[in-house]
Each structure stands twice: as structure tokens, then as C-alpha cells.
Amino acid sequence: MRTIFDYRKRNGTGGILPELDVPAKKTTDLIPQDLIRQDKPRIPNLSEPEVVRHYTALSKLNYGVDDGLYPLGSCTMKYNPKVNEDVAHLPGFASIHPAVDPELAQGSLSVVHKMSRLLCGITGMADVTLQPAAGAHGEITGMFLLKRYFEARGETQRTRILLPDSAHGTNPASAATAGFSVTEIRSGADGLVDLNALSGELDETVAGVMLTVPNTLGIFEENIMKITAMVHATGGLCYFDGANLNAFLGHARPGDMGADVFHFNLHKTMSAPHGGGGPGSGPVAVSEALVPFLPVPRVRLDRGRYYLDWEKGQSIGSMHSFYGNFGVFLKAYTYILTLGDEGLYEAGENAVLNANYLQERLKKTYRLPYDRLCKHEFVLTGKGIADGISTLDIAKRLIDYGFHPPTIYFPLIVHEALMIEPTETESRETLDRFAEALEKIASEAQENPDLLHNAPHTAPVRRLDQTRAARNPILTYPFGD
Amino acid sequence: MRYIPNTDADREQMLSAIGRFSMEELFSDIPQLVKDRFQPLGISSKSELEVRTKLASLTQKNAAASALSFLGGGIYDHYIPSVVQHITSRSEFYTAYTPYQPELSQGTLTAMFEFQTLICELTGMEVANSSMYDGATALAEAAMMAARVTGNRKIAVSLALFAHYRRVLDTYCWASGIEIVDIPTVDYRCDFSHVPSDVGGVIVQSPNAFGVIEDLADVKEAIGNALMIVAVNPVSLSILTPPGEFGADIVTSEGQPFGLPPSFGGPLLGLFATRKAYLRQMPGRLVGQTVDADGKVGYTMAAQTREQHIRRQKATSNICTNAQLCALTATVYLASLGGDGLRDLAMLNLEKAHYMAQQLSDLPGCSLLCDAPFFNEFVLRVPVDPKRIRDGLRVEEILVDDPAQMEALGVTEALRFAVTEKRSKEELDRTVDLVGRML
Predict the structure, then answer these.
(1) In a shared domain, residues B382 and B264
(2) Is 90 exceeded by the pLDDT of residue A300?
(3) Do B59 and A93 touch (CB under 8 A)?
(4) Is residue A112's pLDDT more than 60?
(5) How many CB pairs under 8 A join A and B?
(6) Nearest CA distance, B437 vs chain A (angstrom)
(7) What are the pLDDT digits (tens) for A56-97?
């Protein structure tokens, strides 16, 4: 791949910025010589057509949801409506500085406030902060809230977080950032939290349980009411990882299940784009008991005027420079207004229908370790397809059929996992074509295994050597001069 | 619903293919009690036209949209070349996700490799991650990294930090058990003689919250084994000596000035660069160069063994992604301006800010807060209540920072101005004239 540094151009064409219109001074009259940079950063000077062609060429090496099915499990790669993008780009939103007098930003503040109310409604919970900039950021916000809550109650001996082995991969690191230690709770043969194992760990040293609902197997925790009651009975709190909200959108609310903290991934459930890995938005909803600890500033409404409440009180403080990823939750706000109750219900319903349809068909070819009704996603294993064939081989071969591979090797409780989440924005035809491709790959694995070992064959690059990148990291352009 | 392709007939056939009789059956695993408690939002679906009209009408209530801005404090009103949004609006970029499958993500990965290189070139550091949420969380991650590297959970922090940096730093340090000691200022610059000897890291911002460029030349020597962490204004780096040359261990920044609109404070772009020696301790996603099966150069995520999905609770950070699209924005912005254009940009900011500072300080009773060097932001002392000036300017649709920001830093009767390349001489003169009439 050519980079901009390969152009090696020395002279720019300029013309983007105007000439200086105030009397010019010598730089050394403005800043002392020893603060002035001596060398020039090695950044090439390209003409506009070169820049445009370079990045257009790069874009063509990428695969996005607009290119086709992107069935990454637990990532909810649904279609990103175009109107959302246009709204976020409106100059009347995009140009507003965060430190402006709130009187001059009533439109933006009303979005923050109204979006908070909508997310409270969707979760059935007491209040929401929009500050977290991503799901993982929502997770540590939630962990910080638990920490502050127990500090305020004088229960600082609660230093443990219980984590089912079917929870999301980020959860342990999030708990650790807040200084908690992590105890793993095993799943039963049915893929659900083992209630005895949970009960055995619950005591006065437990701050809370981090649950992923439905879990990473795509299975709804049927005992959810028992689990939350057990945790509450011992004085702990229940954290729900909301990455899988699409599974029960419009059908159920975490607040009604006993959640104390719930984080959204608006870039998943609410159709804001993933951007190649961010920016996201990870609002956190809380139960009544945690409201006093939410981050500041809070956006409040008083007699028709929105204002920022900086009163810290018992708050954990701030989690973001300002009010969170406004431009991202504005897209999610647009989506929720577009869908309304009916659309949210349909989204959840079709997400689950698509997943079950695909699961039913694919389990005839691939082993389905937990064979039961799934929610928005399911997990197959690549084991047993053919000797010497790994899930990685299957995934890479899918690329040749024009599909983005599913999430692989996660969750850890399924060996050689293929975690598939189709979302509601895929048609039955697309699901059929995808299933057909996976079925063909299973035959190829028997008949011509090298076809899989050497895949992909049609991508911009062949299989990349990731070990080499890990062992000998080259993280910047080797200028070599 | 127009985002769902399946028809009722499709759904019927799909249900029967899975041996179910109704959609309700698909949710039979959710306890009845939970379903009974469900309450809808009470809003009906709306057409694209209605939604768009409603949201466009909200922008009418953002009076700030049409105003002339001297607001700064980390977020600046810079010009964004047309190229930038045209490229970042390509859906191959914005509808993709984390490059888990590098063979389908060479566009994102190559751009991130460029981004990391650009940030290293600008900061004078050896390795940069592919971005973080924002400048404030990048700084908080730097504090946690310093504690990790040195095994010392005490950190010295300049009192001349932007308030939002300090707020977020306070939260993260409290939660992760890091003690903060303040570094006082003398003449609005950090007084490093007051850094205790038993800290794991020293955090300084330059230009600082007063706009003053800190003298970083002797810091590294003064702080011993502690990590030197510098938060910078990224635009200043093409004319100011980069922190790397002063021996900085970690450089962080708010990258918004590189092509991102203010967007009411988000999404932003956290920049994070460090030395190669700390590679295994640094947070955030990294992209590295490698080869494919044919020996052709390509890019992939690198050093993932630091990350949460592999290292679990022992990871260097819980962060799973970066601010990818914002980092791409910065990359395209930097490539568009080029090295020479970036220098022109910094010079325009420097010259215009100094011109305005001079004109304002010539007004009766007005003076600059101090005579220390500054870049594109400065503080003016005024002989009247600064709120009066701020409100007076607001009537003329000119925005300056809330004087409360300066009061919080112990400076009264003062106003902070940020001047970018977007402000013309005529706008600067008119603003100075208006301030003069309010004295």
C-alpha cells in the first residue's frame, strides 16, 4: 500500500489558507528562538487531486456495511441511515463550541436533554449520562459509579466484581481500571449463568455482577430476575452490558429486570456508524440509587430553558471533556425519532428472526454447541468441519465469497467460535446467500482444503502475517534517510 | 419500516423454516413479568422529511451558530478544507468497523499507519497510538500509564491545566487510586522547583490554560525518574519545538483542531504518543506494517497482547477502539495542508493572535496578563467587569470565553481570547474597537 510519505514531495501548492492580512512580524519577535522548531516535520506537500485519489484508493481497499453483510457478532453492524449523517453535519449543530453560553446553544442542549429522556424510557431506568464516548468508556463509567456508591455507603470492603464467562471481553479490564478484582462465574451446560456458582461467590465483598444480556452466546438469561434478586439480596449491584440491546429492543427493558447500571452502544443498537472503530457513544443509564453519582455537568430544564448544572455533590466528576460525543448521539436521536415505538419493536423482532433463521439453517452444516432459541446472534464452531481446518481458514475463505467474516474465536467458552449477528437490516436473500457460501466452504474444506488455507484469494492483500507485526512492530513509516 | 428489507411474506416463510408459529414465540425466553412491565416511549414513527425538518428547526435555537468566535480552551474554530469531509463521507470508511479482518481493512489500516507517523513527526516522539476518545481521557490514560511504568501512584499536575482536562484527570485518578499533587505557577508558568521528588509522573500543559508556552527545557532533569507528560496544542507543533526534543516521555493532545468541527464538544480526538521503550505499557490501538503471504507490504493491528480482549483484567487499558473516523479526518486534513501548509497555518494563528493582543493591550487600562510567549490564545486584563465586556460582545454576535474560566484559575478581571486563521483583520479590528467602547 502506498502511503502519503511515498510521494516525497518537497514543494506545496498551498492556496487553502489566505495570505496574512495583519502586519507581518519576525517570528523571533513573537516567540523566543529556543522555543522555535528547528527541523521540519516530514509531511509531504501534495496537490489536491493527489490527496483525493490517494484516499479514494484507500477507501476501495475497505469493506463497510454499505458494501454488504457484516455479521460481526456482538457488534450489531446494521445499516447506517444517510439522513443521520446529514443531520449531524448541519452547520447549526456542527459549528457550536462546547464552552459557549448555554443561552446560545439551546438547540443542542435540548438534544442532550431529550435524548437522555428517550434513553431512560428505552431502559426503564431513572436517569442517563451521555458523556461516555464508547461502550468501553460506558463500562468504566459504570464501574466508577459502583465504586462511588459503595464509598458513600461506607462499604469499601466491596472490592470484587463477578463476571460470567459468557460476558463481553472488555468487562474484566473495565472492572480492573476502577480497582476492582474480577471473579469469573462459569456457565452451565445450557449456556446460562450457573446459579449455584453465582450464589457461592456472593457475599459482602462483592460490589456487583457484570452481566451481558443476552449473553455472548446470544442466549437470553432466563433466570435474570432470580440473578438480580440474588445480587441485590446480598447488597450488590447489577451491571448490564448493553452491547446486545438489539436483541430485545422494543420488547423489554433492563430496568424491569433489575439492572442498576446499563450502558448503551449507540453505534451498534441505534445505527450510528462504527467509523472504522469509533467514534462511538456509550451512554449509561442508572437506577434511582445511583442518580446522585452521575457525571457532571448535567443538562437540566428549568421553565423552558436548558442549562448546565455543575454542582458536583456526590458525583464521580467528569468522564469526558464536555458532554460526550454529541455528533454521534445526534445520529442516534435522529434514528429513534425516525423509528418511533413501532420501528424499535420491528427492529428487535427482525434482528431475532434473522438470527434464528440463519442459525436453523447453518446448524445443519456447522456444530451449534448451544442449540436453543437465540436472540440477535448465535455461536457456531468451526471444529469438526474437516481435519486441519481452523475457524480462521473458514473466515478468510468467506472473504472470497464477498462477505465480511463473523466475529471469530470469541466467546472463549466455544472453541473455534464463529459468532454471527446478521441484524435486522439484511434481507432473507442475503442471509440465504451467506448460508450458501458457508455451506460451500464446508464442502471445500473436505475436497480442497488448500483453498481455505490460502484464502483469501480475491482481497486486496493475501493473508497477512500478524505474528511478524507483533514480534517486530513497525509502527511508523520507515523514512530511511 | 424502511430500514428493514424483509416483507411480511418473507417473515412468514422464515418463521415456518424455523418451526415457529408466531413472532412472540421468538421472545418466549424473556420472563413474562418483564414483558408485562414494558412501557413504550409513546412516540410514533416519522418520515425522513418530518425528522429532518424538526432537527433543522432545532439549529435555529443555536444562536451561537452565526456568531464570530474567539472561543478556545482546547477546542478551536479552524478552517476545514472541503476535501476533508468529502473523503471521510466515503462509506467504505465510515460504515466499517475495527479492522479485525485486515485483508478487508487495508484502507483504514494504511490511513492509521499514516496517522501514527504524522503524530510522531509533529510531537517528536517515537510511537503514537491510532487515537483515543479525547484530549482529556488521553491525558488521564497517560497518568495511569506513568503509574504503571514507575510503580508509583502519585502524580504532580500543573495548576495551569484546562479545567476540563483536570476534571477528567481527577475522576480517573480517584478511581484508579492515584494521588494528585498540584504544581503551582509563578508568573503564569509552571514552577517545577515545586515538584516533589517522590512522584511517578509530572503533567504539564503547553501552551497552558493562560495561553502561555511553558519552558520545558529543564523539566526532564528537574523531575528525576518521573515520567514527563506534556499536553500540547497540536497546531502549534509545526512552529514550536516539539516536546520530544525536551525529553518528554508521553505527549497527549486534543486533536480537534485537525479538521474536526467543534460539534458541541464531541466527537473529539485524543492524541497519544510516547517512547518506544514504553510500547508494551502504552494504551490504545496500534497499527503495524507487515507482509502478506506473497510478501507484499500490508498493515494490521499490532502489539495486541497489551489489549483488553487478550490481556483481560491485566490489559494496559480497557479501551477497545480508537476515534478512528476522527483520526482519519485528521490524517486527511494534515495531508491536505501538507508540511508547508501546516506551517502557514501555525504562522497565521501566531501572527493574528499577537496582532490582536497588541491592539487590545493598547486600549486604556488594558494589558496582557503577562509578557510570557504565547501561541494563538492569550489573556487580557481589563479595568472593568469582564462579564460586561463578554455580554456586550455577545450582543454584537461575538463570542469570548466565560470570565469564570479564568476566575477558577485565580485570575479576576480578565478575558481569554483565541484567534485562529479564520479571523480577518477587519473582524479583529472591529472586536478591538467594540471592547474599547465598553471600557
Answers:
(1) no
(2) yes
(3) yes
(4) yes
(5) 683
(6) 22
(7) 999 999 999 999 999 999 999 999 999 999 999 999 999 999
Does residue B7 lie within any of the structural domains?
no
Any B CB within 8 A of A425 CB: yes
Evaluate if residue A123 carries a pLDDT over 60: yes
Q: Are residues B224 and B352 in the same domain?
A: no
Asked if B408 has any chain A CB less than 8 Å from its own CB, the reply is: no
Chain-chain contact of A37 with B240 (C-beta, under 8 angstroms): yes
Shortest distance between the Cα of A382 and any Cα of chain B, in A, equals: 17
**Model confidence at A13, in pLDDT bands (50, 70, 90)?**
low
CB contact under 8 A, B332 and A55: yes
Pairing between β-strand B414-418 and β-strand B377-381 as defined by DSSP bridges: antiparallel
Q: What is the CATH number of the domain that holds B289?
A: 3.40.640.10
On whether both B220 and B360 belong to a single domain, the answer is no
| Mean model confidence pLDDT for chain B | 96
Among the candidates B332, B360, B386, a domain finishes at B332
Residues B249 and B369 both lie in one domain: no
Contact A170 B424 (CB under 8 A): no
For chain B, what is the domain count? Answer: 2
Domain ranges of chain A: 4-59, 83-338, 342-468
Q: Which A-chain residues 322-381 have CB contacts (< 8 A) with chain B? A: 322-328, 330, 333-334, 336-347, 349-350, 352-354, 356-357, 359-361, 373, 375
Instruction: Tell me, letter by letter, the H, E, C secondary structure of chain A.
Output: CCCHHHCCCCCCCCCCCCCCCCCCCCHHHHCCHHHECCCCCCCCCCCHHHHHHHHHHHHCCECCCCCCCCCECCCCCCCCCHHHHHHHHCHHHHCCCCCCCHHHHHHHHHHHHHHHHHHHHHHCCCEEECCCCCHHHHHHHHHHHHHHHHHHCCCCCCCEEEEECCCCCCHHHHHHHCCCEEEEECECCCCCECHHHHHHHCCCCEEEEEEECCCCCCCCCCCHHHHHHHHHHCCCEEEEEHHHHHHCCCCCCHHHHCCCEEECCHHHHCCCCCCCCCCCCCCEEECHHHHHHCCCCEEEEECCEEEEECCCCCCCCCCCCCCCCHHHHHHHHHHHHHHHHHHHHHHHHHHHHHHHHHHHHHCCCCECCCCCCCCCCEEEECCCCCCCCCHHHHHHHHHHCCCCCCEECCCCCCCCEEEECCCCCCCHHHHHHHHHHHHHHHHHHHHCHHHHHCCCCCCCCCCECHHHHHHCCCCCCCCCC
Question: Model-level pTM greater than 0.90?
Answer: yes
Q: A83-338 architecture in CATH?
A: 3-Layer(aba) Sandwich (3.40)
Residues B411 and B354 both lie in one domain? yes
Indicate yes or no: CB of B95 within 8 angstroms of CB of A273.
Answer: yes
Is the pLDDT assigned to residue B312 strictly greater than 80? Answer: no
What mean pLDDT comes out for the span A145-151? 98
Same domain, yes or no: B127 and B178: yes
Structural domain range at position B250: 82-332
- Taking an 8 Å cut-off on Cβ atoms, the answer to whether A271 and B343 are in contact is no
Tell me which fold the domain A342-468 belongs to: Aspartate Aminotransferase, domain 1 (3.90.1150)
User: Where a domain ends, among B300, B332, B364?
Assistant: B332
Query: Looking at the complex, does the CB of residue B349 fall below 8 Å from at least one CB of chain A?
Result: no
B184 burial via Cβ count (<10 Å: 0-12, 13-18, 19+): exposed
What is the mean predicted confidence (pLDDT) over A365-378?
97
Q: Residues A405-416: pLDDT tens digits? A: 999 999 999 999
The whole-number pLDDT of residue B301 equals: 93
B10 reaches A (C-beta below 8 A) = yes
Beta pairing partners, A210: A239
Q: Is B41–A25 a contact, with Cβ atoms under 8 angstroms apart?
A: no
Q: Please tell me which of the candidates B62, B137, B324 has its beta carbon nearest to residue A277.
A: B324
Given this model, what pLDDT does residue B356 score? 98
